[in-house]
Specification:
Number of domains of chain B: 3
Largest interface: A-B, 80 and 115 residues
Number of helices of chain A: 5
Helix content of chain B: 55-70%
Oligomer: heterodimer
Radius of gyration of chain B: 25 Å
Distance between the termini of chain B: 75 Å
Number of helices of chain B: 19
Structural class of chain B: alpha/beta
Order of helices and strands of chain B: HHEEHHHHHHHHHHHEHHEHEHEHEEH
Helix content of chain A: over 70%
Shape of chain A: flat
Strand order of the largest sheet of chain B: 5-4-3-6-7-8
Shape of chain B: elongated
Order of helices and strands of chain A: HHHHH
Strand content of chain B: 5-15%
Largest sheet of chain B: 6 strands, parallel
Chain lengths: ~100, ~475
């Protein structure tokens, strides 16, 4: 237990601070921005694409299962990132001030 | 050097996520915040392709990676640009599902290439797989339901079966992590299949008014799945991004449940839309409703001091947001004070209605939130309810047997006159009767929202 903590101290810090930040950032949001916010958060978890790039980038060239699945993962991850940000931007473009 | 650049980009990316999310919470800075997070994401992705190394090996298969990204960008861009504003919730759900699938596949490939490892490694890989798969299949079902391609289906037996399935998944997970040599490598596919099935069956019975909560929940699940990828590769940006969304999404889910006065457990286990849940419905059956003509409505509104418009999903379906703005302008010209009262869960997602009205150029200060709208109701002359139902149901206040009892609602019945614009007498999305329609102050105006509003604007013009 103590050993695990010492070895992963940095990660544990990141995890806890990120959790607190996430709670803090969102708790002051007016209800009217919930949809764009959810959509924006949706785009941000598209960061999972970086894992997909790593998987694909280190797959052996004869490991077809890994290559095919990796290709699919990068494609789906891109969909999440691009679709997420574009849709959020479209929503928010409507909130722009007039006059 | 390249490692330094990689870590620096990740740091920049993480900061843009945090600031971006923060800026997304203010109407003026939101767009900028979104673009900022997008830029950070771009930097992180580029840096990964250029500088990432594993055991001294740089990223290979680059043409394939770029190809996949190219295809994904074109499809994602087109889908996001083409989607109608009314279909936004299901679009978010769909993209969320893609992220979940991506996380699940990472775990699949990782285990496929390195099936041996410490129990910590196995736990991370399997949890990423389970959460990602549940999020994927759940989001696709949520997408189908919101798009009205999939019908609600619920039964008591299903609730118990789901619970059993969940226990089974975690039982197998426990075994696979603690006794990996005993259980074999095929456990991966068993977990994948069970998780996919669980995702489907978990969303299947949840209907109607609870859908936004589910999407928010699935959103935070995908965040967690991304974070497990971060643990797997010890990758700081996946960790911060994933956890940030995971925790923010969870809080958002809780906030939404609060807006409807329901517990999360209640949403997941007891389903709304299905039959049997509702209390006594018969009482309303033999009452009659009063109809009102367009001309009378026009006169009533034009000579009122204060008019409040309550928009609901019906307005969105009829694409009536623009004509609604038209009505507001016409009434303002007559010196009437007009505002829009927005229930937190109006539409199919919190804030959905605001997006739709903003699309129609309704000025932001005209949109009043429920807590601010309710105290002013008794000084309001006319409330026009356009395609809203459950969010103005007095049963939430005075009928303990109603499934929505306790949900905060817009107290429109406190106003002097209520005009309900509705296509038919059909029950709302939550599937329950609304005694507001039989209220002495209420008059009904039947017809398509867009059509009726258009005629109403014309009538007011002629006055």
């Amino acid at each position: 237990m103590a050993e695990f903590f010492l070895q992963n101290q940095q990660t544990i810090y990141i995890v806890i601070l990120s959790i607190l930040l996430g709670i803090e950032v969102i708790s002051n949001v007016p209800a009217i921005l919930h949809t764009p916010l959810m959509s924006g958060a949706n785009a941000i978890h598209g960061v999972v694409i970086i894992g997909a790039i790593i998987v694909m980038g280190h797959a052996h060239s004869d490991d077809y299962l890994a290559l095919i699945l990796g290709f699919l993962a990068v494609l789906l991850g891109t969909l999440n990132v691009v679709g997420g940000f574009v849709v959020t931007n479209r929503m928010l473009a409507m909130f722009k001030k007039k006059k | 050097m390249s490692n330094f650049l990689l870590e620096l980009s990740y740091l920049i990316g993480s900061i843009t996520f945090i600031i971006g999310l923060k800026r997304l919470s203010g109407p003026d800075s939101a767009r900028n915040g979104n673009l900022m997070a997008a830029a950070g994401m771009g930097i992180a992705i580029l840096a990964t392709i250029l500088f990432h190394q594993k055991e001294g090996q740089p990223i290979g298969n680059v043409p394939w990676i770029l190809g996949a990204m190219g295809v994904g960008t074109v499809i994602g861009w087109m889908m996001a640009m083409k989607v109608k504003m009314t279909a936004m919730p299901q679009m978010v759900s769909f993209f969320n599902g893609m992220g979940g699938a991506c996380a699940a596949i990472i775990s699949l490939v990782e285990y496929h290439s390195h099936p041996e490892g410490s129990s910590g490694y196995l736990l991370i890989v399997f949890l990423g797989l389970i959460i990602g798969s549940v999020s994927f299949s759940g989001s696709i079902i949520a997408y189908g339901k919101l798009d009205e391609k999939i019908k609600d289906f619920s039964s008591k037996a299903l609730t118990y079966f789901n619970l059993l399935l969940l226990v089974g998944i975690f039982g197998i997970l426990g075994l696979a992590v603690s006794q990996p040599e005993m259980i074999g490598h095929s456990v991966l596919w068993i977990l994948l299949a069970l998780s996919l099935i669980y995702g489907i069956l978990f969303v299947m019975p949840i209907g109607g008014a609870d859908m936004p909560v589910v999407i928010s929940l699935l959103n935070s699940l995908t965040g967690m799945a991304a974070a497990f990828g971060g643990f797997l590769y010890n990758n700081p940006i996946m960790l911060t991004g994933g956890i940030l969304v995971g925790s923010a999404g969870t809080i958002l889910t809780v906030l939404m449940c609060k807006a409807m006065n329901r517990s999360l457990l209640n949403v997941i286990i007891g389903s709304f839309g299905g039959g049997g849940a509702g209390g006594e419905k018969g009482a309303a059956g033999d009452q009659t409703v009063k109809e009102i003509s367009l001309t009378d409505t026009a006169i009533l509104c034009a000579y009122a001091g204060k008019v409040v418009i309550v928009p609901g999903y019906g307005l969105a379906v009829a694409q009536a947001q623009h004509i609604c703005h038209e009505l507001e302008k016409k009434l303002e010209e007559k010196g009437v004070e007009v505002s829009f009262a927005i229930h937190p869960v109006a539409g199919r997602m919190p804030g959905h209605m605001n997006v739709l009205l903003a699309e129609a150029d309704v000025p932001y200060p005209k949109l009043v939130e429920m807590e601010d709208a309710n105290p002013g109701m008794n000084s309001t002359d006319v409330v026009i309810v356009v395609g809203a139902n459950d969010v103005v149901n007095p049963a939430a206040e005075n009928d303990p047997s109603s499934p929505i009892y306790g949900m905060p609602v817009l107290k429109v019945w406190e106003a002097k006159n209520v005009i309900v614009m509705k296509r038919s007498m059909r029950a709302g999305y939550a599937g329950i009767e609304n005694e507001l329609f039989f209220h002495p102050k209420t008059k009904m105006l039947f017809g398509d929202a867009k059509d009726m509003l258009g005629k109403l604007v014309a009538e007011i013009k002629d006055l």
